Fold:
Amino acid sequence: MLKIMKLKNKLISFDLWETLITDLPNGKNMKLKTIERINNLYSYLNNKGLNLTNNQIKKGLSMLSKRCTQDHNRGKDINFNKRIGKLLKILEIKQNDLIIKEVGDILDDCFLKYPPKIFPKSIELLKSLSKENKLCLTSNTGITSPETYYKYLEIIGIKNLFDKIYLSNEIEIAKPSIKIFKLILNDFNSNPENIIHIGDNIFTDIFGAKKAGFRAIYINKRKSVGNDLAFNPDHTVTDISELL
Structure:
């Protein structure tokens, strides 16, 4: 392991997407999930007499995803039902509790039907580190409910390896906000120098963690991301397997 990882009795915080799990490299499941969501929403909404085209739904989901990312970059998030409400507003559909629930169920079901894949070394790494360290998961989430994330994490066998899980659309704070990292500090009653955060996003993960005084390991898979933010991670690797 890296020298920084040899420290015992530390708290190690992990990002989720493209750190432990992935929709890449070919993105097959991601494409199938998107198609399934569009088709299922089309059938559901048109059965309710709402005459929307597949293209309108596709654009609506794309706009929703972009707005979600914009919120994250500002360090904010909203709960899942409010996010679904934003989609209905984009599609100019009158909202009520039932339609919000049913549209949310469609998005969640498609996520579980075409889930992201866990990286081959993720479980081995987490099990190894959990023997002498506390672990938490700190993830910005997309248009999938916290309940479905927990179900997915249990399915792939890593949910119980974390002492605490922070999902942005559950706590309504997102990386790189210092608030999410302060929440970790308070929950674990720890000092920043005793915490290592590992993630693949130079802005939301590394900038956010370093701003809070955490140590940080940057997983730079692309090997081409520049850093103009006047800070540096403590270590850089190109793949999570290098942490073993």
